[in-house]
Inverse folding.
């Protein structure tokens, strides 16, 4: 017997963590150059002007200023990945993220 808890939602009892961000190659390059910062809470790139300046001291891990900081932050606990690809319309994209047990 199959039981549906929430319509259209796939659920497991897994303790795995997953994160995936897909950005353009240009956004990734701007991130490498420090023009953009990765907000790990909202999972998006922002400008330095958009930084939340009212963070508590224990919230300083919220932002990754470049790819090395992002991957260093998660590589101790999770497997990280970076995959480059081109869409059918010719856009160069980059997928980054992490996965593993929490």
């Amino acid at each position: 017997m199959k039981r549906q808890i929430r319509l259209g939602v796939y659920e497991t009892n897994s303790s795995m963590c997953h994160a995936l961000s897909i950005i353009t190659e240009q956004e990734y390059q701007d991130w490498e150059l420090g023009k953009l910062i990765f907000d790990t809470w909202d999972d998006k790139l922002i400008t330095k002007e958009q930084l939340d300046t009212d963070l508590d001291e224990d919230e300083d891990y919220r932002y990754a200023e470049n790819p090395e900081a992002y991957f260093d932050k998660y590589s101790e606990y999770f497997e990280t990945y970076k995959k480059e690809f081109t869409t059918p319309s010719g856009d160069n994209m980059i997928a980054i993220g992490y996965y593993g047990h929490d």
